[in-house]
Amino acid sequence: MRYQITGKQIDIGEALQTHVKTELGAVIDKYAQRPTDANIVFSKSAHEFTCESTVHLSTGLTAQAKAKATEIYAAFDACGEKMDKQLRRYKRRLKNHHQERSQPVELSGGSSYILAAEATEDEPDSLAPVIVAEMETKIPSLSVGEAVMQMELASAPVLVFKNEKGGGVNVVYRREDGNVGWIDPAIST
Protein backbone atom coordinates (compact mmCIF):
# COMPACT_ATOMS: atom_id res chain seq x y z
CA MET A 1 0.00 0.00 0.00
CA ARG A 2 1.22 3.48 -0.83
CA TYR A 3 1.12 6.18 1.82
CA GLN A 4 1.28 9.88 1.07
CA ILE A 5 1.72 11.74 4.34
CA THR A 6 1.97 15.51 4.00
CA GLY A 7 1.63 18.65 6.04
CA LYS A 8 0.16 21.96 5.00
CA GLN A 9 2.72 24.55 6.08
CA ILE A 10 4.00 22.27 8.85
CA ASP A 11 6.84 19.75 8.90
CA ILE A 12 5.96 16.10 9.36
CA GLY A 13 8.74 14.20 11.08
CA GLU A 14 9.82 10.60 10.53
CA ALA A 15 8.41 9.50 13.89
CA LEU A 16 4.92 10.75 13.00
CA GLN A 17 5.11 9.15 9.54
CA THR A 18 6.09 5.81 11.09
CA HIS A 19 3.27 6.11 13.66
CA VAL A 20 0.74 6.86 10.88
CA LYS A 21 1.87 3.93 8.72
CA THR A 22 1.80 1.51 11.66
CA GLU A 23 -1.55 2.55 13.15
CA LEU A 24 -3.46 3.18 9.92
CA GLY A 25 -2.01 0.00 8.39
CA ALA A 26 -3.31 -2.02 11.34
CA VAL A 27 -6.80 -0.51 11.02
CA ILE A 28 -6.97 -1.08 7.28
CA ASP A 29 -5.59 -4.63 7.46
CA LYS A 30 -8.39 -5.57 9.87
CA TYR A 31 -11.18 -4.59 7.51
CA ALA A 32 -9.93 -4.22 3.94
CA GLN A 33 -7.84 -6.88 2.26
CA ARG A 34 -6.44 -4.91 -0.69
CA PRO A 35 -6.19 -1.15 -0.13
CA THR A 36 -4.37 0.68 -2.90
CA ASP A 37 -3.27 3.94 -1.32
CA ALA A 38 -3.80 6.30 1.59
CA ASN A 39 -3.46 10.08 1.68
CA ILE A 40 -3.03 11.72 5.06
CA VAL A 41 -2.82 15.51 5.35
CA PHE A 42 -1.97 17.37 8.54
CA SER A 43 -2.64 21.08 8.96
CA LYS A 44 -2.70 23.61 11.79
CA SER A 45 -5.17 26.39 12.42
CA ALA A 46 -4.36 28.56 15.44
CA HIS A 47 -3.82 26.07 18.31
CA GLU A 48 -5.59 23.11 16.67
CA PHE A 49 -4.14 20.39 14.45
CA THR A 50 -6.34 18.78 11.79
CA CYS A 51 -5.80 15.35 10.28
CA GLU A 52 -7.62 14.35 7.10
CA SER A 53 -7.24 10.83 5.76
CA THR A 54 -8.50 9.27 2.55
CA VAL A 55 -8.08 5.56 1.83
CA HIS A 56 -8.76 4.18 -1.65
CA LEU A 57 -9.74 0.52 -1.68
CA SER A 58 -9.27 -1.93 -4.55
CA THR A 59 -13.04 -2.23 -4.89
CA GLY A 60 -13.10 1.38 -6.05
CA LEU A 61 -14.59 2.67 -2.81
CA THR A 62 -13.05 5.51 -0.86
CA ALA A 63 -13.18 5.96 2.93
CA GLN A 64 -12.55 9.40 4.43
CA ALA A 65 -12.13 10.67 7.98
CA LYS A 66 -11.23 14.00 9.55
CA ALA A 67 -10.42 14.95 13.14
CA LYS A 68 -9.07 17.88 15.14
CA ALA A 69 -7.12 18.06 18.39
CA THR A 70 -4.65 20.32 20.19
CA GLU A 71 -1.81 17.84 19.58
CA ILE A 72 -0.85 16.35 16.22
CA TYR A 73 -0.69 12.74 17.44
CA ALA A 74 -4.08 13.09 19.14
CA ALA A 75 -5.55 14.47 15.90
CA PHE A 76 -4.28 11.45 13.98
CA ASP A 77 -5.47 8.99 16.64
CA ALA A 78 -8.98 10.50 16.57
CA CYS A 79 -8.95 10.34 12.76
CA GLY A 80 -7.80 6.71 12.91
CA GLU A 81 -10.66 5.86 15.30
CA LYS A 82 -13.17 7.39 12.87
CA MET A 83 -11.66 5.41 10.00
CA ASP A 84 -11.80 2.24 12.10
CA LYS A 85 -15.46 2.88 12.94
CA GLN A 86 -16.36 3.51 9.29
CA LEU A 87 -14.61 0.41 7.99
CA ARG A 88 -15.98 -1.75 10.80
CA ARG A 89 -19.50 -0.48 10.08
CA TYR A 90 -19.23 -1.38 6.40
CA LYS A 91 -17.09 -4.51 6.66
CA ARG A 92 -19.88 -6.92 5.74
CA ARG A 93 -21.07 -4.76 2.86
CA LEU A 94 -17.51 -4.27 1.59
CA LYS A 95 -16.86 -8.02 1.66
CA ASN A 96 -20.13 -8.81 -0.16
CA HIS A 97 -19.50 -6.26 -2.90
CA HIS A 98 -15.85 -7.27 -3.16
CA GLN A 99 -16.72 -10.92 -3.80
CA GLU A 100 -19.34 -10.04 -6.45
CA ARG A 101 -17.04 -7.61 -8.25
CA SER A 102 -14.11 -9.32 -9.97
CA GLN A 103 -12.88 -6.15 -11.73
CA PRO A 104 -12.13 -2.78 -10.13
CA VAL A 105 -14.67 0.01 -10.52
CA GLU A 106 -14.50 1.66 -13.95
CA LEU A 107 -13.97 5.44 -13.82
CA SER A 108 -15.03 7.89 -16.52
CA GLY A 109 -13.72 11.43 -16.86
CA GLY A 110 -15.99 14.37 -16.27
CA SER A 111 -15.67 18.10 -15.73
CA SER A 112 -17.52 20.21 -13.23
CA TYR A 113 -18.17 23.85 -13.91
CA ILE A 114 -19.33 26.22 -11.24
CA LEU A 115 -20.03 29.58 -12.74
CA ALA A 116 -21.03 32.84 -11.17
CA ALA A 117 -24.15 34.53 -12.43
CA GLU A 118 -23.71 38.11 -13.50
CA ALA A 119 -25.34 40.46 -11.04
CA THR A 120 -27.84 42.79 -12.64
CA GLU A 121 -28.96 46.17 -11.41
CA ASP A 122 -32.24 44.59 -10.22
CA GLU A 123 -30.49 42.14 -7.88
CA PRO A 124 -28.59 43.05 -4.73
CA ASP A 125 -24.96 41.92 -4.47
CA SER A 126 -25.86 39.38 -1.79
CA LEU A 127 -27.66 37.18 -4.37
CA ALA A 128 -24.64 36.88 -6.68
CA PRO A 129 -22.85 33.53 -6.08
CA VAL A 130 -19.13 33.30 -5.43
CA ILE A 131 -16.97 32.25 -8.37
CA VAL A 132 -15.37 28.87 -7.86
CA ALA A 133 -12.84 27.27 -10.22
CA GLU A 134 -13.46 24.47 -12.69
CA MET A 135 -12.34 21.03 -11.55
CA GLU A 136 -11.98 17.63 -13.14
CA THR A 137 -13.42 14.57 -11.47
CA LYS A 138 -13.85 10.83 -12.11
CA ILE A 139 -17.30 9.31 -12.37
CA PRO A 140 -17.37 5.71 -11.08
CA SER A 141 -19.43 2.98 -12.71
CA LEU A 142 -21.32 1.42 -9.77
CA SER A 143 -24.53 -0.30 -8.80
CA VAL A 144 -27.02 1.82 -6.85
CA GLY A 145 -26.18 -0.01 -3.60
CA GLU A 146 -22.46 0.57 -4.10
CA ALA A 147 -23.10 4.24 -4.86
CA VAL A 148 -25.02 4.69 -1.61
CA MET A 149 -22.26 2.93 0.30
CA GLN A 150 -19.59 5.10 -1.40
CA MET A 151 -21.54 8.27 -0.57
CA GLU A 152 -21.83 7.23 3.09
CA LEU A 153 -18.17 6.18 3.32
CA ALA A 154 -17.09 9.54 1.92
CA SER A 155 -19.57 11.42 4.15
CA ALA A 156 -20.68 13.25 1.03
CA PRO A 157 -24.14 14.79 0.61
CA VAL A 158 -24.37 13.68 -3.04
CA LEU A 159 -22.69 11.23 -5.45
CA VAL A 160 -22.87 11.22 -9.24
CA PHE A 161 -22.20 7.80 -10.79
CA LYS A 162 -22.70 5.80 -13.97
CA ASN A 163 -25.30 3.10 -13.32
CA GLU A 164 -23.89 -0.33 -14.23
CA LYS A 165 -27.33 -1.68 -15.18
CA GLY A 166 -28.77 1.17 -17.22
CA GLY A 167 -25.51 2.78 -18.32
CA GLY A 168 -26.86 6.29 -17.66
CA VAL A 169 -25.57 8.91 -15.28
CA ASN A 170 -27.43 8.71 -11.94
CA VAL A 171 -27.33 10.64 -8.68
CA VAL A 172 -27.80 9.53 -5.08
CA TYR A 173 -28.16 12.14 -2.35
CA ARG A 174 -28.96 12.53 1.33
CA ARG A 175 -32.49 13.91 1.77
CA GLU A 176 -33.45 16.36 4.51
CA ASP A 177 -35.53 13.64 6.21
CA GLY A 178 -32.37 11.47 6.53
CA ASN A 179 -33.28 9.01 3.78
CA VAL A 180 -31.35 8.52 0.56
CA GLY A 181 -32.76 9.84 -2.73
CA TRP A 182 -31.93 8.32 -6.13
CA ILE A 183 -32.24 10.18 -9.42
CA ASP A 184 -32.34 7.94 -12.49
CA PRO A 185 -33.16 10.13 -15.48
CA ALA A 186 -35.13 8.49 -18.27
CA ILE A 187 -33.07 8.04 -21.41
CA SER A 188 -34.90 9.65 -24.31
CA THR A 189 -34.84 7.81 -27.62
TrEMBL record:
Example of a GO MF term: ribosomal small subunit binding
CDD domains (UniProt xref): RaiA
GO biological process: negative regulation of translational elongation
GO cellular-component term (any): cytosolic small ribosomal subunit
Main location: cytoplasm
SUPFAM superfamilies in UniProt: Ribosome binding protein Y (YfiA homologue)
Pfam families recorded: Ribosom_S30AE_C (PF16321), Ribosomal_S30AE (PF02482)
Keywords carried by this UniProt record: Cytoplasm, Translation regulation
Subcellular location: Cytoplasm
Domain Sigma 54 modulation/S30EA ribosomal protein C-terminal: 128-181
Assembly with partners or alone: Associates exclusively with 100S ribosomes, which are dimers of 70S ribosomes.
Free-text function comment from the UniProt entry: Required for dimerization of active 70S ribosomes into 100S ribosomes in stationary phase; 100S ribosomes are translationally inactive and sometimes present during exponential growth.
The family this protein is said to belong to: Belongs to the HPF/YfiA ribosome-associated protein family. Long HPF subfamily.
UniProt-recorded name of the protein: Ribosome hibernation promoting factor
Lineage: Bacteria, Pseudomonadati, Pseudomonadota, Alphaproteobacteria, Rhodobacterales
Gene that produces this protein: yvyD
